[in-house]
Amino acid sequence: MSTAGLAPSHPVQVLDEYGMPRDVHVAGERPLTLYVDKREIVTLMTLGSAPELLALGYLRNQGFVETIDSIVSVQVDWETGAAAVTTSRGVEDWEGKLARRTVTTGCGQGTVFGNLMDKLDGIRLPAVVLRQSAIYRTLQHVSEYNEVYRVAGAVHGCALCRGDAIEIFVEDVGRHNAADAIAGHMWLEGLPGAERVFYTTGRLTSEMVIKVAMMGIPILVSRSGVTSQGLDLARRTGVTLIARAKGRHFLVYNGARRVVFDAIPPAPPGRGQPRHGG
């Protein structure tokens, strides 16, 4: 596997509101065309900092390749803007997978191929209990990351967490890319999803719920909001869905019975007693 990660941000000079020059950074954005066994699949707009993991995770989350053992090599060449993946057994039903394509609401327009929605019928995630205090610790820890966002903005961040520890944090111009790179990391390292929590700064759309369910992760937390289709799919697969999570605030949209409220903050004036469950 190549190691062709790019610098995530680049210096530029701009003028501020006073007409004065300032040195700032902008986030990188490069097209990366994914080829599998010399067949072109998709072009992804990416930060480029983890292209090999992105390629692997994309193939995993889209259901193109079922096991990591089927991957022979991943080679990224930025001169041609290509990620070439070679498999040992090929991909079954290419035409069927590529014929059905949905452009999602992902930043930079994500794409879902084939019958992934049908595959969700076979996914039933474990009912993992999550403590409120652990949510707060996780939110505190992820605030220490977002390095590219602090310097340049224009990116989303995703984290794979175990307990309240951050195992890997990835930023990219689209949250779907960051999620795929984490999926690639899990695939390479043989990490199961059942004991882990997935955090994202982006909204919880159907695409994000599908990716997390495909990764076998039962808990999805976001700083942003939820779409109706994202909520429907979370109910369908058993994903505990927690959104609008920032500081001491969060909302449980699905899986409230699996959340233990052990760190309830003081109620604001006029607020009644808290109710749990449901």
Please count the helical segments.
Answer: 8
Helix content: 25-40%
Shape, per Cα inertia axes = globular
Order of helices and strands: EEEEHEEHEEHEHHEEHEHEHEEE
Mean pLDDT over the residues: 88
Percent strand: 25-35%
Largest sheet: 6 strands, mixed
Quickly give the structural class.
alpha/beta
- Given as residue ranges, the uncertain stretches (5+ residues, pLDDT < 50) are 102-110
Termini separation: 47 Å
How many strand units? 16
Radius of gyration: 20 Å
Side by side, the strands of the main sheet go 11-10-12-13-14-15
Brief synopsis:
Helix content is 26%, strand content 32%.
Verbal overview:
The protein is an alpha/beta fold and about 280 residues long. The chain is built from eight helices and 16 strands. It has helices at about 50-60, 95-100, 115-120, 130-140, 145-150, 175-190, 205-215, 230-235; strands at about 10-15, 20-25, 30-35, 40-45, 70-75, 80-85, 100-105, 110-115, 130, 155-160, 165-170, 195-200, 220, 240-245, 250-255, 260. It has a six-stranded mixed β-sheet with strand order 11-10-12-13-14-15. Strand 1 and strand 2 (about 20-25) form a beta hairpin. The longest helix has 15 residues, at about 175-190. The protein is globular.
